[in-house]
Amino acid sequence: MGALFGAGVGAAAPLVIGGARALARPLTGRLRSAEAVATEHIAKAARDAGVAPEVLAREIADAVGAGQPYVVADVLGKEGQRKLAAMAKTPGAQRELATETLSARAT
Questions:
Q1: Which of 38, 48, 36 is nearest to 78 (CA)?
Q2: Which distant-in-sequence residues (6+ apart) come within 8 Å of 80 by Cβ?
Q3: In the prediction, which pLDDT does 66 show?
Q4: Which H or E run contains 19?
Q5: Is residue 75 within 8 Å of residue 56, measured between CB atoms?
Q6: For residues 23 and 58, what is the distance between their CA atoms, to the nearest angstrom?
Q7: Under the phi-then-psi rule, with left for phi > 0, alpha for psi from -120 to 50, and beta for the rest, what region is 52?
Q8: Nearest alpha-carbon partner for 98 in 65, 76, 63, 73
């Protein structure tokens, strides 16, 4: 009887583990770092705007080197403005950062 029970548990274990992994996968996707999520959003916005990543990096570096207040939204045009507006409307740390950055530029 014990051997039969052991065999049943052994056979079911891979199914249970596979099911647990399938259930956990959506959760682990949401637990990514904020930096990884931000990088993905910027990369998508750049693709949508037709701006190559190296152009984005070069323009921002050039502006910072010249002392100009320049952000990703400046390089990405309308697509960048849409993303920045969405960030500014969503509660959280990004709202504060967007508001502070834009306020500093206005003065």
A1: 48
A2: 45, 49, 71, 72, 73, 74
A3: 92
A4: helix 2-30
A5: yes
A6: 42
A7: beta
A8: 73
Q: What is the pTM of this model?
A: 0.57
Are the beta carbons of 48 and 78 closer than 8 angstroms?
A: no
Residue 98: both structure tokens together: 């967007």
- Domain residue spans of the chain: 1-31, 34-106
Tokens standing for 78? 């309308």
Type of residue numbered 15? L
Please provide residue 55's backbone torsions phi and psi, each rounded to the nearest 5 degrees: -70, -45
pLDDT, tens digit, for every residue of 46-68? 898 898 988 988 988 898 899 88
Q: What is the per-residue pLDDT across 81-106, written as a single tens digit (0 to 9) for each?
A: 888 888 888 888 888 888 887 788 77
Q: Which residue has the tokens 């003065």?
A: 107
Report CA Rg, the chain. Answer: 23
